[in-house]
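Shall we go through a protein fold together, starting from nothing but its sequence? Please make up or recall a protein chain and show it to me in full. Go ahead whenever you are ready, and we will take it from there.
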Amino acid sequence: MIDRLIDTFLHRFTNTGKDNNDNPIPLITTGSIVLGAMLRLALIMIITWWIIDEWMFQQYWIFIAIAIMLFVIYPSFRQYSIFNDRIENLAESTMCGSCKHFDNTGQMCILYDEHISNNSLPCEGQDWELKN
């Protein structure tokens, strides 16, 4: 549990090859990207609040904005673009990608409430319906 939280915080899943479209339960979803960004933002805010309070750096607020950009926004954006590329590959390689029950933000079938991978299709094509 702690390892998964640390991986989410550091966005380490795709860098180490742990997450791919063959896993039955995906490690990276939109929610895990947002959680990692919120954890990083909370840590940056606590650290900068302490630095500003301790050393009276109120006039250097631009450094806080740069820290948030470098340590929160950019890593989350990068992880989200990797996630989108992986979901596009999954949508093209499986029949679920063209189904109206496919939710690409969570990589799951809404009808069966199960995750989709290259190796497992929840309905096995029985309830497939074309997107509009």
About this structure: The beta strands are 102-103, 108-109, 114-115. Residues 61-93 form the longest helix (33 residues).
